[in-house]
Structures are given as structure tokens and as C-alpha cells.
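Support request from a user on the community tier.

User writes: "When I paste my C-alpha cells into the form, the page sometimes reloads and wipes my input. The last time it worked, I copied everything first. Here is what I submitted, just in case something in the input itself triggers the reload:"
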């Protein structure tokens, strides 16, 4: 199994393009899976430099319906004519982030929604329940919100007036069996990283977490949430934790201080073999 960070806020080499976004390229069991697509600015450039042929995409998984994860869908679908798309129906909702009384749209762009609408309906899978893509690859479906200290990670709303909080129920994760535990891929962990990993373990009885890669959305987390997350990860004792995108530098520093070399910050261009 090979996982490459295709889009991230940081880059690992020259000529790659950084953006506030996230995408993973996963090669497993002869399949090519694109987990999120970033904003769409960096995707094609980085794929070209990294020698990744987006036309070979078999499966597209959208972790949730924000612009920085679904902005590149139209670009991919122009190349990957047979791609199967998996996502929660809530990804199409209008969404806003409100700060200082100013509402900023954060939903997927019109070009992405139009591309989804044009795609053959039989190749778009609207997902709410857990689903196995193969014997060794699965999707979380709706992630139960069980912890008292985890929230969606920001001031997110379904209306520009800020009267309807967005629960981000469309947040989902992907997991892969390696024979030595699960590798869990997350977009922004809007359901909470602890909730997400607990759910993955519940769906895979007897397994352990080998690695977790993606955005943890801890930039604005309370000290209690950060401490509880670190404590949980210490108990799970995964061999590799790769915080990316929306995790936030203070949280990455705290994770490294508590968990040492198991923490390695992600960046576009980095590849992980399992």
C-alpha cells in the first residue's frame, strides 16, 4: 500500500504548490483512490510533478463538502471517465464560516457541484452507512459524536445569519487493512479525531490503529480537547501519526512534545508505504 500526500498547506519539495487544502493519492490492491481533491489550484500541478496520472483514478472519496476538499473534482472527472464517487449527500449543502460577524461561503464551488450533477448517477454513491469498498478498504459512513469535548472545529453554519449551526454530518473517513493494523485517512476530522478512530475500531473488531493521516482540526481546539486527544492517541499507540492541513502548528508541536517521533508533520509530496 502506498499513500502520497498530493495536496496540503505545506510542500516537501520545490515546484510543488501549497494551498489551504488536502488530497491523498492511495494505491492499494491494484486500485487508485483519490481521497479529497483540494481547492483545485494545486492538484494537477502536483500530480504532474509527482508522476501521478489522475486519469487512472478508480475511486474518488470526498470526506466532506468544503471547498478545500472538493474544489478539484471537475478537473479529475475530465480525465478519469470511469471513476466511482463516494460521499455523503450533505456535501452539496450551502455552508458558511462566520467570523467577526462576516459570513464567508465555504461550500464546494459551483463547478464541482455541476460536475457531480453531470456524472452518471450509477457512478455516484451517496453514503450514510459504513461501506466496504473491498475486503481490506472501507468507509466510515456517518461517524457517531460520542465525546463531550470534541466539536466541528470552527464557527460553521448552514446560513449566512449564523442561526443554523452546521453539524457537518457529512464528515467521513477511509480505513485500510495492512495486516498489522488499520491506516485511517481523515480529511478534517470534523466529527472529532477521537470519535473517528473509535468508530473505525468498532467497525473492525480485533484490529488496532497502525497509522492515521490527515487533518485533525485542532488549530482552535481547547486545551482540554487537545489534552484528551493526546491521551487517547497515547493509549492507541499507533506507529505513525501524520497531522496535515488544518491541524495547526501549535497542535502539531504539542503532539510532537507528547508523542515524540511517532508524529511527523505531513506535506505535499511525502509518500508512506505500508
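"...and here is what came back when it finally went through:"
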Amino acid at each position: 500500500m502506498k499513500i502520497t500526500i498530493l495536496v496540503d498547506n505545506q510542500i516537501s519539495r520545490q515546484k510543488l504548490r501549497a494551498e489551504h487544502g488536502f488530497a491523498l493519492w492511495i494505491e492499494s490492491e491494484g486500485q487508485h483512490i483519490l481521497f479529497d481533491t483540494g481547492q483545485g489550484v494545486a492538484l494537477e500541478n502536483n500530480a504532474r510533478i509527482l508522476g501521478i496520472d489522475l486519469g487512472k483514478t478508480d475511486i474518488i472519496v470526498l470526506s466532506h463538502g468544503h471547498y478545500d476538499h472538493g474544489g478539484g473534482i471537475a478537473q479529475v472527472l475530465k480525465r478519469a471517465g470511469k471513476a466511482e464517487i463516494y460521499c455523503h449527500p450533505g456535501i452539496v449543502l450551502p455552508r458558511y464560516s462566520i467570523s467577526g460577524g462576516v459570513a464567508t461561503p465555504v461550500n464546494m464551488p459551483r463547478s464541482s457541484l455541476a460536475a457531480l450533477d453531470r456524472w452518471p448517477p450509477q457512478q455516484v454513491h451517496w453514503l450514510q452507512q459504513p461501506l466496504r469498498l473491498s475486503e481490506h478498504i472501507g468507509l466510515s459512513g456517518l461517524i457517531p459524536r460520542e465525546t463531550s469535548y470534541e466539536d466541528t472545529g470552527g464557527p460553521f453554519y448552514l446560513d449566512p445569519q449564523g442561526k443554523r449551526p452546521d453539524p457537518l454530518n457529512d464528515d467521513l473517513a477511509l480505513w485500510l487493512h495492512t495486516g498489522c493494523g488499520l491506516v485511517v485517512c481523515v480529511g478534517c476530522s470534523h466529527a472529532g479525531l477521537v470519535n473517528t478512530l473509535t468508530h473505525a475500531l468498532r467497525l473492525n473488531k480485533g484490529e488496532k490503529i497502525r497509522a492515521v493521516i490527515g487533518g485533525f482540526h485542532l488549530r482552535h481546539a481547547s486545551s482540554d480537547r487537545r489534552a484528551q486527544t493526546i491521551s487517547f492517541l497515547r493509549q492507541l499507540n499507533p506507529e505513525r501519526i501524520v497531522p496535515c492541513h488544518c491541524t495547526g502548528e501549535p497542535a502539531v508541536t504539542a503532539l510532537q512534545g507528547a508523542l515524540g517521533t511517532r508524529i511527523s508533520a505531513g506535506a505535499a509530496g511525502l509518500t508512506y508505504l505500508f
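Agent notes: The reload is a front-end session timeout and is unrelated to the input. Residues 223-236 form the longest helix (14 residues). The longest strand covers residues 209-215. Escalated to web team.
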